[in-house]
Amino acid sequence: MYFWPNEFRLRVEEDLARFLRAPTVESLTEALKDDHPYVRMKAAEMLGQTGDPGAVPPLIQALEDSAHVVRWEAAQALGKLGDARAIPPLIAALQDGERSLCRVTAEALGTIAATGLYPELQDAVPHLYELAQASPNRALRYACRQAIRQIKQSTAPIRNLPLPAAVSAPPAENLPVPAEAPFLTPDSLPVPAEPPEKEENGAEASESEPEKSAKSGWRKYLRQALRQG
Which residues make Cβ contacts (< 8 Å) with residue 111, sequence separation at least 6? Predict the structure, then answer.
């Protein structure tokens, strides 16, 4: 919370009175357009307390306010809301150059990192690292180191995710069982047909069994006669 001088307190309370009758996001957004910077600052603080995601867009716009106190309170409010939409504008606010604003912006980024997994936060690490090394302000260097540590812890589950398999094989129990090939036994093999006997000129023999037996006996008789003669 940013404290303003006492002489402005009465004016701020009077200006906020018309908005606090209905402290909604819409009424507080209208208060961000007030001429008095401390009224705008108080409106930004109250928007961060609503917890309403609808407060994020007007607070992002308030990061570009001409008054430093309004930008300071808007950065802190965005950290409380923990919305990923605020990450790029907060990273840009790190380059504001004002030490206290950079510090509260670093704290806001660390707070958002503690609320969930946001890969966009990795873009803030180079800027935070540069401020942690180069800034002469000790509080700013500490806030940047803390934010870097919180961002690395929050994005570690993303970096450690297992790589997807190139080809996902189905489970072995779901594979179809191939049909077995028929096993041929000697009894199941077909018996080949005997080739028919052929005559000397290639024609198939047509003699009956008695004729074949008679020819065979006649050949044997001729062979014996030739041997005796």
Answer: 79, 80, 82, 150
